[in-house]
Amino acid sequence: MTDPLVTGGGPVRTRLMAAGAAVLTVAVGLGARAGMEGDIAKYAGDALYTTLVYALVVLAAPRAKPLTAAGIALGISWAVEFLQLSGVPAELSRRSVVARLVLGSTFHTPDLFWYAVGAALGWFVHATTHRQTPTRPTT
Predict the structure, then answer these.
(1) In order along the chain (139 residues), what is the average pLDDT of each group of 10 residues?
(2) Residue 139 included in any domain
(3) Is residue 34 a part of any domain in this protein?
(4) Which end of the chain is more exposed for a tag (fewer CB within 10 A), N or C?
(5) What is the rounded distance in angstroms from the CA atom of residue 50 to the CA atom of residue 25?
């Protein structure tokens, strides 16, 4: 029997990688907002928002398949975007910077596309780094 931490597989390693990816995604997202302007910054932020949600999904469910995690992350992002039609996120965003970062304030149709880009980015990174660890035969 192989130790998942030694062989590179298992939920503990997956959670550690997802946590690292989440921190990196937040850093890149904040850097993009600070260092870029206009639509490029906004849409990069939208895509990275869903990439962050993807990392959090994998953190919570480390055995989730990449396509499943992408679908969940995209669904959450779209749900938050459609919630903006209610006006509740706009009101909360006026009261809290955290609410503004998490919920946004105004529905914007192109955001839905950029969320899909972020889910695809999460899927791609996860699918290319996620490998089934072969078990070594015991002798």
Answers:
(1) 50 94 94 89 94 98 96 98 94 93 92 98 92 54
(2) no
(3) yes
(4) C
(5) 10
